[in-house]
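Schema walk-through. Below, the input block comes first and the output block second. Nothing else is stored per chain. Lengths vary across the set, and this one has 372 residues.
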Amino acid sequence: MNPRRDFIQKLALSAAAIPFAPLYGAPHELDVFGFSGDQSVLRVAIMGLGSYGTRVADAMQSCKRAKLAGVISGTPSKIKNWQKKYNILEKNCYNYENYDRIKDNPDIDAVYVITPNALHHDAVLRIAAAGKHVICEKPMALNAKEGEEMVAACKKADVKLLVGYRMHFEPNTLELIRMRNEGEFGKIMFFQGLSGFRIGDPNQWRLDKALAGGGSLMDIGIYAINGARYMVGEEPVWVTAQETKTNPVKFKEGVDETIQFQLGFPGGAVASCLSTYNMNYLDRFFLNGEKGFGELQPATGYGPIKGRTHQGPLTEPHVVHQTVQMDEMAGIILDGKKAVVPVDGQEAVKDLKIIDAIYNVCRTGEKQKLEL
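--- output ---
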């Protein structure tokens, strides 16, 4: 018996079209960090109780606008442990066969999908059909086609689809974006994104193409892809890429070890990025403009994020990424707030289109135009 395959089969049940009623009325005003005005709370169920799900749950204990209200898991023992640790009611606990029943549970407003990549698509369709908002970890899907289907399903169900882009709320990252928007770097010329680490256990799901959809690019390289877009402030119009594999036993067919890729932007800027599962100490963003530069190192880790510019060090205070993310996402869902950098499903589809193109270019060796 293979528990991971069984997991896929259980979660990939067909999504049924379930009627629902709108969850919220008129939006309310929301202060970015003070949360003044409406004090309603987003009640969230977490699907997937692994290490990152636990990190999010722990961070949510400090949230002002988001509350952990339920769990969805295929492991009964994990559900019991979470019930005790986080004081979760029995009626808000589900497994992968019965979680469509959340449609009848007023205690849950949204589900945060934190499962292996291959399971995101069907889970989001089922949650949307149940009339609940969705937060999905990145990459949102295995490819752009799946992503577009997820966006369409949530639009049809009139529910929000957000993606776990925690860096979009990180203060030092937002400071660099502010400086760029205000012209403090001048014309943007170049971006470098280095994302990588040496991966351990060869039997983990991240090295299983059926579950991960690829290798380092899906897991860590997406940070450099997304970072290039929000740092340069434009959408890329072409891509080139090269794949290197030194260990075909550990990194089997379809599981990339190292990919270098380059992006071109309409304003003339270029990006040079590296994604790898075979090198440590790679977590750096560098943005160069005619008037100055901005650097983050580490750029995407859990923190603290550190950086500097031509004007000196970045000094924004460190906050737990997932706490801020969940409070800000509560504002987006409950109050119609707009994020400085989008975190919706359409944003995720753009990253997936670039991932699709990078894999294609690695196969063909030819430069490819992008239309996002």
